[in-house]
Amino acid sequence: MKLIESIIAFIFNVLIKNVCSFFVRISYPEYVESNKFHYDINPHFSIQGRTDLFAESVPLPENLHIFYLGTNSLYISDGKTGLLIDPFFTRPDVDWKKIALFKNIQIAPDPLVISKILQGAHISKVDAVLTTHSHYDHALDVAEVMKYFIANSENSPMLYGSKSTYFIGKGGGVNDENITIVNESETYRIGDFEVQFILSKHLHIPIVGETISGQIDKPLVPPVNFYDYKDGETYGIFIKHKMGTILNLGSANYKENAFKFLKDKVDVLIFGIAGFEKSVIASFDHPAYRDDFYNEVVLATKPKKIYFSHYDDFNQPLNKISDCIGKPLKTYNYFTSRNDQLKPFFLPVGKYVKI
Length: 355
Ligand SMILES: [Zn+2]
Known about the structure:
Helices cover 27% and strands 20% of the residues.
């Protein structure tokens, strides 16, 4: 039975991919301009009307901290060394109806917006740009962010990611010596941080998700089609520092037993909840997805804190975020129902949170 289901799923995926690329090829390219905006945060932003679900924010701390910038964009610093995960600031207003019709939607990073955000957020030192996977809402801006710091700071950062991320960096003009294609068996020392990339999986998104799964196999020179940002490998990023540890998943899925070696070693688990609560996604081919995720990630690692990222509407510019994607309260309620002693918190956009 399982074999028949796999064969049907395989044929379906091949069909969808081919139908998609056919429609994309015949449709006229439409370029999506970025929202021109400066750095600012909507002070009234809430989670479906609730303002009590955010992690406690603090004034600029001197010890290990996170600064959250929407989607799964996280700046992590100990005051000396800065890591930037999945920087995505351009936030083009992509029309999902056109995406669903496989229109040729062209997107590109916007260097002006990126520099305004980085200056406005006072992020002046980045030693490494790390990517969990290569979808556009995680990796569109990596090359421009790299070039910004190479031009504007004393040290040249290193871009870490999959081979697909390498091709985004390369196509965007980053030199090979500033890119590391990551290896699961290695630990990367960056200042006082130790970083490991743990092979994981992307959350299953039917139809559109099929067409953006796979590898990027040549340099991406923007503007390019939305569908060209294939996910590549999806990693969980484990960050170790003497002041605390973080496990970050850009997409809420797992590989069986991948995280159990981190049992009792994770202080803060941060994961992107986009798509988590949608039962159609969760149960499409995996009815027990939510419970399995909980067991494989939360119970396996036993984190001290859980923070949610990737809950904001990333079609809205950073200075005007007012909506969430999906229904994040459903996800919140699920986690609270599993263990009300370990309540998750949403990372507040544009604020510092201590580890
Ligand atoms: Zn993704």
